[in-house]
Structures are given as C-alpha cells and as structure tokens.
C-alpha cells in the first residue's frame, strides 16, 4: 500500500512540532490510531482526515487526494469517462428529438394550411 498520506501527515505534524499524542488529542483519536495512519497501516475516515487536516492547518482536500490510492483514482477516472460518454449520448438524443419535433411541427403546419379555408 502506498503511504503518501501517512508520510505527509507525519511531516506536517513534525513541522508543527507536535507529538503524536498531541495530534491525537487535538484530532480526537487515540495515539495508536495516529501511529497506524502515519505508518500506512490504517486509512482514516474522511471525518477523521478532516479533523487531522484542520489541526495541521492544511486543506482537507489536499489530504483526501493523498489518501486515494491509484485504484481509487483510476476508478474515479473511469466513472468520469463513463458519465461524460452518457451525457454526450443524451445530448445527441436530445438534438435528434428536437429535430424530429421540428419536422413534426412543420408537417402539422403544412397540413393545417391545406385545410384552412381560402
């Protein structure tokens, strides 16, 4: 498992001259929990990650991105590509539908004009 997140948390904690016990108390988690996160043996929940980020003075989004492993990022990229493809297909269908509705309107108008008394 890649441990960019844990290493980053450790570096930020040390840069703020915080002990593991101090960060744990500030983040409302146990000392062993912080140690497990920093060593890469535990992935914190989003809520805990937000609390840690706040106490370290960094945006939680930055730590969230570091917390994603490559599989998560690849999965997100695939979902984004799938959604983009779906949106593009829906837009193409919408254009076809608008075109068909326009043709139907023109046919009705033409038919109505033939029926109109002269």
UniProtKB/TrEMBL annotation:
Keywords on record: DNA-binding
Organism from which the protein derives: Botrimarina mediterranea
InterPro entries named among the record's database cross-references: Cro/C1-type_HTH, Lambda_DNA-bd_dom_sf, TransReg_Diox_bact_type
Name of protein: Anaerobic benzoate catabolism transcriptional regulator
Stored CDD domains: HTH_XRE
A Gene Ontology term for the protein's cellular component: cytosol
GO MF term list: DNA binding; DNA-binding transcription factor activity
The HTH cro/C1-type domain, residue ranges: 9-63
SUPFAM superfamilies linked to this entry: lambda repressor-like DNA-binding domains
Pfam families reported for this sequence: HTH_3
Source domain of life: Bacteria
Coiled-coil regions listed: none
């Amino acid at each position: 498992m890649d441990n960019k997140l844990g290493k980053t948390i450790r570096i930020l904690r040390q840069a703020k001259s915080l002990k593991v016990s101090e960060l744990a108390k500030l983040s409302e988690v146990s000392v062993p929990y912080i140690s497990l996160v920093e060593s890469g043996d535990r992935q914190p929940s989003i809520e805990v990650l937000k609390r840690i980020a706040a106490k370290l003075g960094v945006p939680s989004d930055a730590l969230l991105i570091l917390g994603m492993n490559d599989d998560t990022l690849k999965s997100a990229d695939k979902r984004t590509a799938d959604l983009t493809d779906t949106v593009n297909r829906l837009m193409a269908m919408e254009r076809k539908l608008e075109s068909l509705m326009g043709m139907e309107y023109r046919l009705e108008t033409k038919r109505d004009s033939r029926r109109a008394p002269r």
